Amino acid sequence: MKLNLYVSEENAPLVDRAKKEMGDDSLSTMFIQCLKARLPVEVPKGDLETIVMRHGTLKKRFQGKYLFGSREGAEEFEGGLYCVARSKDDYLVVEYLGIAHPGAIDDESRVNVYENFAEMAEAEDLPSSLKAAVAEELGLEYIEDLDI
Question: What is the pTM of this model?
Answer without folding.
Answer: 0.67
